[in-house]
């Protein structure tokens, strides 16, 4: 019987991409059944298999609960996050032409699914999927939607708001920063006052700033901007919010949301993802000077994206087919259930985490409940406990958190990311494991709750 189990474990895995060449690990870890829905082990399909028998139903069931990922600590930083097996398996797709019919169909479907994720049905809205990180989204905005010498109002809640302002400056725009206190955000009256005093081409806001865990009220912001300066575009950096915080693109009247693949969307890093309104695209078309970037030019990329979504081959620069396949799988998983359920689950888990942290006597960087992100939590360390002490202790217990990032408080806090499958997969215990590890690690550092 042991030899049969060993043989079954060595069966090549069938995925949408073909057969995996690697064998199952000898000590597999349980994961979600949904990750393996395409598993097929019939003898007729395994022509390259060294075995000639078909595993029993029980054996198939056992294999279906196994993960192909090597044992590893739970990655609970504010991105990259843990990935579902099926998403990673999608990246093993055989090499194919980026203008071939198979990939064109996948890319086109992926662009269309982005419309559902952002909740836009306006045909004038334009999605983009570019090879690059979330930072490329700043360049896309700065190079195309504002021109040298024009003013931008940057609402900053931490490191990433400040960096967006730096990017705008690089392209010749004139950003004015409106900063919230550490752990807070600019308030609507001061935003309205700033908009009434100067004409701004656009307002930028970091929906969730991963340096502080502060979330901004996008719906209320758009309403405030439209009341005072309706011609001003509202652009949100949603790198750490898309797919875990609600974003109703059309209903709220947003003009742009930029994000990346490796956070709540749950796909490996390497894709810059964005959605722009018809109004934003008209602003780009009416600019007086050419885009200030070649690779990040909407002039170069818009027809490519439109052709791909229409299932027509097109070329400007080579995309990453394997990452697009992974994104396609991740989006299908996300959209298989109502988005409202996903947002609610992230809220419930976030509330649980924040209660556990306050029960430990710890303070959260984002001071007000309404300013606290559901994607991550920034946690002040107790007096006398150092980052260099607590992070290794967490790591020894199979949990990885991130250190501080905000320059004013960087040595005083740590960051706990809780997004994607670590939250939504009922077969994972990442969050409970992290909370237990945090409590134990702090005790080992001498902290008494």
UniProtKB/TrEMBL annotation:
GO MF annotation terms: alanine-glyoxylate transaminase activity; L-serine-pyruvate transaminase activity
Broad EC category: transferase
Known cofactor(s): pyridoxal 5'-phosphate
Presence of the UniProt keyword Transferase in the record: yes
Keyword list, A-Z: Aminotransferase, Pyridoxal phosphate, Transferase
InterPro entries associated with the record: Aminotrans_V_dom (IPR000192), PyrdxlP-dep_Trfase (IPR015424), PyrdxlP-dep_Trfase_major (IPR015421), PyrdxlP-dep_Trfase_small (IPR015422)
Gene3D superfamilies xref list: Aspartate Aminotransferase, domain 1, Type I PLP-dependent aspartate aminotransferase-like (Major domain)
Domain of life of the organism encoding this protein: Eukaryota
Keyword GTP-binding: no
Protein name per UniProt: alanine--glyoxylate transaminase
Species of origin: Trichoderma simmonsii
């Amino acid at each position: 019987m042991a030899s049969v189990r060993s043989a079954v474990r060595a069966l090549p895995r069938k995925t949408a991409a073909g057969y995996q060449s690697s064998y199952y690990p000898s000590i597999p870890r349980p994961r979600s059944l949904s990750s393996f829905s395409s598993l097929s082990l019939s003898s007729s399909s395994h022509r390259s298999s060294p075995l000639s028998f078909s595993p029993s139903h029980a054996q198939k069931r056992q294999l279906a609960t196994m993960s192909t990922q090597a044992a590893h600590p739970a990655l609970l930083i504010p991105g990259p996050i843990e990935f579902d097996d099926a998403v990673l398996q999608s990246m093993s797709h055989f090499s194919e032409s980026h203008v071939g019919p198979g990939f064109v169909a996948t890319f086109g479907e992926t662009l269309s699914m982005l419309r559902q994720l952002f909740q836009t049905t306006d045909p004038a809205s334009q999605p983009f999927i570019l090879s690059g990180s979330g930072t490329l989204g700043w360049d896309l905005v700065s190079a195309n939607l504002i021109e040298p010498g024009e003013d931008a109002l940057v609402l900053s809640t931490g490191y990433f708001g400040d960096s967006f302002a730096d990017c705008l400056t690089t392209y010749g725009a004139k950003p004015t920063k409106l900063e919230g206190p550490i752990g807070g955000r600019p308030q609507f009256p001061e935003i309205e006052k700033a908009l009434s005093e100067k004409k701004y081409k656009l307002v930028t806001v970091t929906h969730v700033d991963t340096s502080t865990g502060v979330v901004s009220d996008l719906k209320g912001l758009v309403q405030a901007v439209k009341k005072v300066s309706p011609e001003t575009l509202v652009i949100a950096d949603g790198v750490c919010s898309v797919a875990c915080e609600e974003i109703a693109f059309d209903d709220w009247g947003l003009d742009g949301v930029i994000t990346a693949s490796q956070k709540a969307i749950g796909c490996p890093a390497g894709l810059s993802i964005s959605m722009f309104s018809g109004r934003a695209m008209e602003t780009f078309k009416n600019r007086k000077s050419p885009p200030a970037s070649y690779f990040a030019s909407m002039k170069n990329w818009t027809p490519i994206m439109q052709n791909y979504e229409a299932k027509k081959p097109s070329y400007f620069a080579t995309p990453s087919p394997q990452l697009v396949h992974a994104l396609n799988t991740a989006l299908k998983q996300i959209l298989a259930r109502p988005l409202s359920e996903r947002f609610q689950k992230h809220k419930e888990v976030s509330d649980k985490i924040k209660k556990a942290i306050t029960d430990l006597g710890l303070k959260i960087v984002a001071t007000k409940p309404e300013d606290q992100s559901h994607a991550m939590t920034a946690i002040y360390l107790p007096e006398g406990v150092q980052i260099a002490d607590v992070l290794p202790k967490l790591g020894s217990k199979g949990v990885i958190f991130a250190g501080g990032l905000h320059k004013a408080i960087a040595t005083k806090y740590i960051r706990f990311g809780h997004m994607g499958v670590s939250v939504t997969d009922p077969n994972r215990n990442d969050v409970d494991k992290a909370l237990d590890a945090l409590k134990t690690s702090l005790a080992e550092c001498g902290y008494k709750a």
